[in-house]
Amino acid sequence: MTRVDFCGVEFKNPVVAASGTFGFGREFQDYFDISRLGGISSKGLTLNRKEGNKGRRIHETAAGMMNSIGLQNPGVEGFIKDEWPFMKDLDTVTMANLGGGTVEEYVEGARLLEKTDLPIIELNISCPNVKEGGMAFGIQCTPASIVVEAVRAVTNKPLVVKLSPNAENIVEMALACVEAGADALSLVNTFNALAIDIRTRRPVFNNITAGLSGPAIKPIALRMVYEVSQAVDVPIIGIGGIMSWEDAIEYIMAGASLVQVGSANFRKPDICLDIIMGIEKYMDSEGLEDLEEIRGIIGR
């Protein structure tokens, strides 16, 4: 059985399309039946509409990609008006990924989402490609605690906090967020990285640095999921370089209840379906009746 109970919300399987890589679902519905997904994490939202960063936004690397999108999005009210009606009719669990530049923006965005029947909020305190907010809250424990506690006060929905691998100490950050009111954690977001154009002798991106994702980060992200799972008693979503069902199983064995698939969606739009079917076949071949039998098995 691939079903997962996550913070009281039932997912038909553990595979979730990661924020920023799947839009709001519309873009992928021509490629496969997206109701097969366990869930979708929406494109990153901010209180107000954002046009995103100027200049180049995507850069391929030897084992992944870098992005500097800058949270281009329609704003929370735009999402509720134009995107949520579509997403809520999908036969899958939807998370709203919420970012912000100030604590007040996070809080107001959460207040608006609280009024909807959206099942889960994923609080993004870890975006490395915006100049304010985002990763600034995800580096040190005190700022992270302040924003999590403030959002917790205005919503009764399950609150998942998305952690940055660039945090000073990922385990201490996880513990601080749980103490501040997080019901679950997702980790990790992209790594802050640099690419240089040797022809122009300038950084590839206008913001100089950008977020690195893809297979290159998987071993590090997997280690972080394992370490955090040993320290906290809340569910974890594992993220980082998942390109196959085998990768997904590794994250579950490290302690994740769900996994998010990001960069792989750009290489093969229906990769999530491959991963779901691979997990199902693996469970059959191993005689597993429930993923709980192997979740966190390397730490037992």
Structure description:
The chain is of the alpha/beta class. It has a single domain (about 5-300), classed as Aldolase class I (TIM Barrel, Alpha-Beta Barrel). The protein has nine helices and 16 strands. The protein has helices at about 75-85, 105-115, 135-140, 140-150, 170-180, 220-230, 245-255, 265, 270-285; strands spanning about 5, 10, 15, 40, 60, 65, 95-100, 120-125, 160, 185, 190-195, 195, 200-205, 210-215, 235-240, 260. Strands 3-4-7-8-9-10-15-16 form an eight-stranded parallel beta barrel, surrounded by five helices. Strands 5-6-14-11 form a four-stranded antiparallel β-sheet, with no helix packed on it. Strand 9, helix 5 (about 170-180) and strand 10 (about 185) form a beta-alpha-beta unit. Helix 4 (about 140-150) runs parallel beside helix 5 (about 170-180), helix 5 (about 170-180) packs across helix 6 and helix 7 (about 245-255) packs across helix 9 (about 270-285). The radius of gyration is 18 Å and the shape is globular.
Fold blueprint:
Layout: E1 4-6, E2 9-11, E3 15-17, E4 39-41, E5 58-61, E6 64-67, H1 75-87, E7 93-98, H2 103-114, E8 120-124, H3 135-138, H4 141-152, E9 159-162, H5 170-180, E10 184-187, E11 191-194, E12 196-197, E13 202-203, E14 209-213, H6 218-231, E15 236-239, H7 245-254, E16 258-261, H8 264-267, H9 271-286
Parallel strand pairs: 3-4, 3-16, 4-7, 7-8, 8-9, 9-10, 10-15, 15-16
Antiparallel strand pairs: 1-2, 5-6, 6-14, 11-14, 12-13
Helix pairs in contact: 2-4, 4-5, 5-6, 6-7, 7-9
